[in-house]
Amino acid sequence: MSGVIFSTWRDEFIDNRDKPSEEWSQTAFKLPETYHGDTGSKAFIGWDGVAIFDEDIDAVELANQYAAQYQEYSEACGRCAPGRWGGRILYDLLDKIARGEGSHDDITHLKEISQTMMVTSKCEIGKTVPKPILDLMEYYKDQFDTCIDDQIPSKHYNGDTSYIAKVTAPCTDMCPAHVDIPAYIEGVRDMVFTESLQATRQTMPLAHTCGRVCPHPCEDACRRMNLDEPISIMELKRIGADYETDHEVPWLHPSEPKPARNDGKKIAIIGAGPAGLTAAYYLALEGIQADIFEELPVNGGEVAVGVPEYRMPIDKYNKDIDFVLDMPTVSITNNHRVTADRLKELDEEYDAVMLGFGARLSKKVRAANENTKMGGYWGAIDMLDKVNLWHKYDIGSPVSNELEGKTVVCVGGGFTSMDVVRCSIREGAKKVIMLYRRDEKTIIRNTTYEEYHEAVEEGVEFIFHSAIEEIFDDGDNITKLKVNMFELVPDPDGGRAQLVKMEDGDFEIECDYLIPAVSQALDTQILPEEWELEMTSWNSILTNGKDYMTTRPGLFAAGDCEYGPMTIVNAVGQARRAASVMSRYIYDGKCTLLDDEIMEDHLAKLKVYDKNEKITGWMPGLPRAVSEKLETEERKDNQKEVNLGFTGEEAIAEAERCMRCYYISMVAV
Amino acid sequence: MSVHNSINTGKPITLTIDGKTCQSTFGKTILEIARENDIYIPTMCYLTKVKPIASCRMCIVDVEGVDGVILSCQEKATEGAVITTETEELYKERQNIMTLYNVNHPLECGVCDKSGECDLQNKTMEFDVDTQIFTTRDQHRPVENWGHVSYDPALCIMCEKCVRVSTEITGDEALQLKFGGYSSTIVNIKKEKNYASLGEAAAVCPVGALVDTNFKYTTNAWELEKIPSACPHCGGGCQMTYEVKHDKIYRMTNNFEFTSLCGAGRYGFDYDNKNVSKDAKAFAAAVEAVKNADSILFAPQITNEEALILQKIKEKTGVKLISGEARAYQKFMQAYAEVTGKTLYSGRLKGISESKAVIVLGTKIYDDSPTVKYHINMASKWHRARVAYMHPLEDLEMKNIVTQFIKYEAGTEEGVSALLVEMLLREIDVPESVKSFLSDLDIGNLSAESNVGEEELEALRKSLIKKSGFSLVVGSDLYAHPRAAQIAKILALLEKYADFNVVCVPPAGNAMGVSLICDLDDDAEGLTVGYNVAADFTLSALGDGDLDMPALNQQEGTLTTNDKRVVPMNVALPYGGYVLNDIANALGLNAEYTIEYTKALPADKGFEALEFDSLPDYFDTVGTEHRGYLLSEQETALNETLDEIAELDGFDGAIVYQCNPKEQFSAFTSKCEPITEEVFLSGSKQFATATKLSDGESISFIIDGVTFKRVFKIDTSMKGTIALNPCYDMGLSAPLVSSYRFSRLEIMQENSKIGS
Asked: What ipTM is given for this predicted complex?
């Protein structure tokens, strides 16, 4: 490729136009110089500037097409005066110049309307669209002048170039499921809760669930953080879902589900967890038959049997599940364990198979004398299964039979371990200790601030910088643990601080139960050996992370079995992409991506959120709303939902803090 | 109950706007605080009574130390902020926005109904937009007729005010945005119904895009005389203004920035008693009739002053005063007061709109009182309020607001009240007598008889956990119930012990005023005189009696509202005949004008000794209501004794429910052409099967001595065996229908052929 000829991207100014190639400046950004495969890209234009990769670029038409894209976007908006009329005028004037009928007065008016849009528009899209257009008008002035002075069309007007655009936002880009966050927040602000939910469901069928237990990576990419505090994005999601449930609204789909195709094509999905449900939903929305096979008698996967009721009430999760299973082309078979042999049959019988069976084997803590068969040694996944099957489905027996009055030690640091310790408290354990190798800050980063503090309030004792060296037993049961303590020693050379074992730091804990919650692995027995599927270095199923097909054609994988233990929203994002790819694969046998998906991946690489950007036009110092939680005494001995959700006033105030950071990006190819 | 306030609203703050130090509280927007301090910031889309819309961007201001301009309508003010509302740059941007608003706006002000009161016109002048530098292709957009209102998209500036009132205020959610950038429009998704609340949308429209269809092209806005008044129809007494020219009302407007008006108020104005002159002979007969009357029957469509005149006549002649609905309400409230110790219910409409949970019991509230329904909708939209709707009929038009419908058997209201109160007081400290009343309740039996499942109540209880700010709205089903007094006392426990904002919605008209002013009797006897009621001698503002009387838009006087306010009404149209005061004077009372009685309204019921002409009638710049005065609460004697629950007498079989359709309240609204509809007895298919009635069949039946001849119509949206029977069309007989609203349908056999 020729490289970056010109760029104003994010305050980086590159102008290599009249320089010999050895003197060319290089860009620090991962700009989409190649579009996809062998297809090169001529230019990239977006909210933060413009980058030119081809000397033959038609800058006038590029600006015109970018304005046209804004015009198209605003077809879906038009919510403010400057954006509604301004966008139209911008496009009309640019097109007039590009087709050779413009005047220099038009340039003046373009600058004027751009100024008003940049200062007064409601959302960032209106504020940012003029920027690269003004850049082009300044740095490619000669092309504009030629069109005006000679009254001729620009050189590629109506020509041979394709322009591919995508609207995104920093939060949307960061969300693994790419949820249209500003849209669902706008639905709350407008108090049209049905629209809020429909916006969510464009890419996220589990609105109740991800409105409650999502670790919200989006909030780390919220531009509001540059001003004061990020929007409480996750909690606003449940408002729409709760509205649908409270008012018994018929299921709200993001678009009218297509009729069943009934063309004999069908896809098998292994596992009814977030990945399986998501894939089934988006396939069914297209009218494609999706048959889910689930080992457990209950649906929902790890979120159902792993995440406790007090965090994720099952009646709410069941709404999400029913929403998917009510689709006419989705079927489910429960109590159906898919073995390697059965998988081979399904592989034969179906046009494509998607694996979404999660990672449900608890890993060991790697201490001396670790015997998984020893009494009192209880894997986190098994323990949580038992807790949840009892409380949510009346299956089995209460875990208080085991834990009441007992001392429980959990080793972990992630969400699963938090669930273990907080459930242990609720099951009546006398003493609950969490051992964690790293510090408080890290455990909060790995889970959430609320999760950690609520656990502390409920009486969990956290011992940081600790690890089990040896497990002691009496032949039948675990009796005590030998624990090492570590300290964080800064690297004198400024490198990463190292955990160093403290001399004399060792101590012993007498305990009845040791519940390792360090990580989970997938059950690879399901995978037929002769398929020789390639695995990742951490022993999950390998795909290219774009189309989610495994090394066996027609076999796809999404969620924890692909990524390793990760989040619900990650599983949803992967499964939706896999569903999209499979919807084409079953007809043409090819793994292809839509332009929208290619752009999505480009933007993720480029990174949309800029933590150093200065925010203008918003009042700083407006606090983030925090929903009410049940008091410790009201919650610690039962499964009542802890988070009561936003009041209406809080929800609207929070939605009003959202700056609607929509951006348009566009590639010329 | 714990108060959770994570965003710290209400904390005092100090800020500076245009050099002026302003004290306010956190949570308010910059614009609100500016208005509190009489500082002007221009807006095009701001509407005080809804949440900030933020579409016009005109209200931008500068904040010291903050880059860029700040949207003052939406952004909350923070402590110490230094704000400037006018600079050259702000002016330029505002001017550009106004220029944009004028792009392709048709230059047809000469024939536009909004001309003269148009925000676009006004702001275009204000910002000196005299040339158009921006151009774009025009588009063809035809005018749409939505019934009461017509919509011209070419004039629409997409401020979204109409959509917001439809969402946040009236709650019918009929109007929505159709996104389309430059071609964005407003769509009416409920075109099949002529929503009278569309009038509310037209009222808030800042330009000529939404105009009343009947008003269109009839006059220029500036030719109309504006006569402030209050709406007499449902008992809400909403603020409104008659707009009159040549003794004709052209339209009703209101102070839409702060208050709302339903369709009856907006379109039900054409009911004056026309072409009346003084008929001395009839008058003499009327005086004689009143003098000799044993009973005066009257409809609640009268002013407080007229009610007092009737009371004075009673005091003079000993005549009985009969007004069925008002009497039932009076007795209900007297029993209610025995528990609370106060003459009035505690609740206010604002309290409803600020509630986190609202329970509605014994009223088809959307039909009975649109304004109360609007306030419940506000609670739903602004506070995500739980709304439990307890009634024998589900109202599907409330579905977007209600979170739980609890259906009970008609007739079992006493048991339902007891079940509800027992559930809500379960964890609250109450005196021993109340506790034993509640613990003695046979919950299982009450639940079985009323058909209210214990699990339904449990679901309701669960949904209220950790919530505070509850309202209870009760209505007319309860007042004429045989056990009304006991029901009143049970429900009053919620006001007294659980701090509920309780509103006992009075029956339509001025029933609340009448119930407070008149010493009413139960049964009529002997010679009768009727005032807007058929009697031996009838005084009628409907024009078909023995002596004409003025309608309420031809009188001055006050009304008592369901928000416990005494509000003034002024004369909109001339009237040439005699009035009640003339009769009273002939009987020896002495007042030159009716409004001399305003200052004499009973102080022991909370009225104030104020002259009519001294009553204020306005909203200030921040929307505080200064209309008339609020009734004051008076203490009354306590008698908290509760009876045992009587055997629940649920109805089975085919039942008729007395219920007027939306925006119809009386024989007066019935006269108003824009809101008239065909009248039916409407019921479900199940009702048709149970009664063996077929769609379109004519039947007759008698309720409270009034014979109804009705065409039966199947309404497929209805369920169950309760049919709706309006009575607003029954003229002078309508007020006679005042017993318990549910009754068994007993068809008069021989008459069933008459209509067919």
From this structure: 0.92
